[in-house]
Specification:
The complex is a heterodimer. By secondary structure, chain A is α+β, with helices and mostly antiparallel strands. Helix content of chain A is 29%, strand content 40%. The relative contact order of chain A is 0.20. In chain B, strands 3-2-4-5-7-6 form a six-stranded parallel sheet, with helices on both faces. By secondary structure, chain B is an alpha/beta fold. Chain B folds into three domains: 2-167, Rossmann fold (3-Layer(aba) Sandwich), CATH 3.40.50; 188-355, 3-Layer(aba) Sandwich (Rossmann fold), CATH 3.40.50.1220; 369-538, Rossmann fold (3-Layer(aba) Sandwich). The chains are: A alpha+beta, B alpha/beta. The A-B interface holds A 9-10, 13-14, 17-18, 21-22, 25, 55, 58-59, 62-63, 65-71 and B 116-117, 120-121, 124-125, 128, 145, 177-180, 301-303, 306-307, 310.
């Protein structure tokens, strides 16, 4: 199962390599990894998407915490959280296809950020499933370039119980 | 104002370090320039790998942090095997490596290696010090991290310009690292659950490991076993944590453990694991390991728990505190008469132990390697500190020497490093100058660090190397015999040196034993010799270590061979 881990680390040289080395050395998966500064310049935030059964995720969490430079690990899959990823995508949009591409883009609230005679560059933001859906729909028009940021996520303040 | 080199010396003194192992070079020459001015003894080895194994042996025998100092590049990379050895066995070490000046880092400078990058996966933590102002704090952190929690090696890389730069020196009194807070105290609820499970069980076994040794809780382990009549087995790393002559002792478990220990674990209904990590050499096929048992697991390292087997009662804690707490909780469920309750189980194990003892065919023309180990035990009155190399020598040293005290067996359990035993013996001997320190070696392993004879001779470190010389890389040969149709590829050592002459060439003493009747008198002479000694014992070439659980088999499928 896919898990999104939110990890706070000391912002110092080599910390990314420690985390990534842990995953490769122990044979864990990284589906996506996003790193950035926090408001405290001494601390960085990582969002790691990984997959595995409960025992593997527990090992990953514990192994991460064992690294001396890791401050905190939260498995956001266990909680209610908002998850977002941004994609930039250059889609073939010659005259004959342009209207249809724009229609799909509109439905998914994509932004057109660059235009050329033959293609459109779209900016798409959403959670894992939305990105999957847009990509699946736009692929038939011909995707010329494709980059994505990797998932970032944040825990919701109100953790509402199920009805 | 002090230089980086002076700060290093002051920090070592603050940490109580009076002995370091090392080898100089261009990047650390300034540290070596400072060293003689301080009351810190330096042991010059002949290869950096030996420096770290010696520091490791010193740490295992004494319980203190072992320290070594090497130069950049090859000096640093030569320590990697030793660092990995210490990491796998959770041995506290601090390793100082020289580094090229900061402005040259990344330039492929002479004797440059990214040792922080190289050792990241085999150290508990490591540092590159870029500013002399950070040096004292870094060293304080390194010693703290090395010896607390689950101990391990910590490396500090020191660029040459940082060593020469100056700053005000102040050593931090206390330390707090927000991202490193090992938990020592056990959870009371879990302890109560463990006590209740013990009270309900009828076939319990204690399975103890190196954690009992490193947390100095052998006494508490014995109290628990005696108070509740619990039979005890240990891992290789745990030998000595429980008296090997105790009536509740089952012997070591695992691939070359005793039949009784393996069957006890196989048949138990409650497994109490203390400071052990369910290593594959212990468990055999994991799905069959103690499959009918509830498992209680005490370990300081949360990642060790439920890594290989799912446990019923996890207790993340220092073994000593957990054992003390467990004894208290057991007192509260004390209407159980433990001795009576477990009598049938213990009696069946005693019977099994007498039916299937560790044994070997004693007759024959050749000296048996097992008899050499037994003789070392007898002649040392069991008081020796034993180090081993890796392979058959290691297993025979584990099986046929009775360990009664913790920290008396020094062996590379996790990584299985050939060449470990001799330098480790040097380290242990320096920690205990008056004790008999014996390296049980093989003719293959001893050649991996034999150059340290020069170190032993130059400081007159009187370690006794007993080579169980069978002319083979014996353990691999044994596997080839049993599982590879006797295809003895690359395991015959037909061109071994004359070890006696070699010892003498280095200025040590050498003895050769070929006949049964020479074994005892020659070993006596070797032990009585005041300096370092090699004893070359020619033993049965194709003797096997028995019994054996083939790799990947269940403990119940043990071959008695």
């Amino acid at each position: 199962m896919r898990h999104v881990l939110s990890v706070l680390v000391e912002n110092e040289p080599g910390v990314l390599s420690r985390v990534v080395g842990l995953f490769s050395g122990r044979g864990f998966n990284i589906e996506s990894l996003n790193v950035g500064p926090t408001l405290d310049p001494a601390v960085s935030h990582m969002t790691i998407c990984t997959s595995g059964d409960q025992q593997i995720i527990e090992q990953i969490t514990k192994q991460l915490l064992k690294l001396v430079t890791v401050i905190k690990v939260v498995d956001l899959t266990e909680e209610q959280a908002v998850e977002r990823e941004m994609v930039l995508m250059k889609v073939g949009a010659e005259d004959s296809k342009r209207a249809e591409v724009l229609r799909v883009a509109d439905i998914f609230r994509c932004k057109v950020v660059d235009v050329s005679p033959d293609d459109l560059m779209l900016e798409i933001t959403g959670d894992y499933n939305k990105i999957r859906a847009v990509v699946a729909l736009l692929q038939r028009f011909g995707v010329k370039e494709f980059v994505r940021t990797g998932t970032v996520a944040m825990r919701r303040s109100m953790q509402l119980g199920e009805r | 104002m002090l230089t980086g080199a002076q700060i290093l010396m002051e920090c070592l003194k603050k940490e109580g370090v009076d002995l370091i192992f090392g080898f100089p070079g261009g990047a650390v020459i300034d540290i070596y320039d400072e060293l003689p001015k301080h009351p810190i003894r330096h042991i010059l080895v002949r290869h950096e790998q030996a420096a770290i194994h010696a520091a490791d042996g010193y740490a295992r025998a004494s319980g203190k942090v072992g320290v070594c100092l090497v130069t950049s590049g090859p000096g640093a990379t030569n320590t990697v095997t030793g660092i990995a050895t210490a990491y796998m066995d959770s041995i506290p070490l601090v390793i100082f490596t020289g580094q090229v000046p900061t402005h040259l880092i990344g330039n492929d400078a002479f004797q440059e290696a990214d040792i922080v990058g190289i050792t990241r996966p085999c150290t508990k933590h490591n540092y590159l010090v870029k500013n002399v102002a950070d040096l004292a704090e870094t060293i304080k952190q390194a010693f703290y991290i090395a010896r607390t929690g689950r101990p391990g090696p910590v490396l500090i890389d020191l660029p040459k310009d940082v060593v020469n730069a100056t700053t005000e020196f102040s050593y931090p009194e206390s330390i707090s690292i927000r991202s490193y807070n090992p938990n020592y105290s056990p959870n009371r609820k879990q302890l109560r659950k463990a006590a209740e499970l013990l009270a309900q069980s009828s076939r319990p076994v204690i399975y103890a490991g190196g954690g009992v040794v490193s947390s100095n809780s052998a006494q508490e382990l014995t109290s628990l076993a005696e108070q509740c009549s619990l039979p005890v087995t240990t891992t290789l790393m745990g030998l000595g944590a429980f008296p090997g002559d105790h009536s509740l002792w089952l012997g070591m478990l695992g691939m070359h453990g005793t039949y009784t220990a393996n069957m006890a674990v196989n048949n138990c209904d409650l497994l109490l694991s203390i400071g052990a990590r369910f290593d594959d050499r212990v468990t055999g096929r994991i799905s069959s390991f103690a499959s009918g048992a509830k498992i209680i697991h005490i370990d300081i390292d949360p990642t060790s728990i439920s890594k290989n087997v799912v446990v019923d009662v996890p207790i993340v804690a220092d073994c000593k505190l957990a054992l003390v707490g467990l004894l208290e909780e057991l007192g509260k469920v004390s209407d159980v008469d433990w001795a009576t309750r477990f009598a049938p189980w213990n009696e069946s194990l005693v019977e099994m132990r007498s039916t299937y003892p560790l044994t070997y065919a004693k007759e024959g023309e050749w000296i048996k390697p097992q008899s050499v180990v037994e003789k070392v035990f007898a002649l040392s009155d069991g008081q020796a500190i034993v180090s081993t190399e890796v392979g058959q020598n290691q297993m025979w040293a584990a099986q046929f020497f009775t360990y009664r005290h913790p920290r008396t067996l020094l062996t590379s359990g996790g990584l299985g490093t050939m060449g470990y035993g001799f330098p480790a013996a040097i380290g242990a001997q320096l920690a205990f100058p008056d004790k008999l320190v014996v390296d049980i070696a093989g003719d293959g392993s001893i050649q991996m660090n034999i150059q340290e004879l020069a170190t032993a001779v130059s400081y007159q470190i009187p370690v006794k190397i007993i080579i169980l010389n069978n002319g083979f890389l014996g353990m691999v040969r044994q596997w080839q015999e049993l599982f590879y149709k006797k295809n003895y590829c690359a395991t015959c050592l037909h061109t071994n040196p004359d070890f006696v002459a070699l010892a003498k060439a280095y200025g040590a003493e050498g003895f050769l034993i070929e006949k049964h009747e020479d074994l005892e008198p020659t070993l006596r002479a070797a032990f009585a010799h005041p300096g370092p000694v090699i004893v070359d014992v020619r033993v049965e070439p194709e003797e096997n270590v028995a019994p054996m659980v083939p790799a990947g088999a269940a403990l119940s499928e043990m071959l008695l061979v």
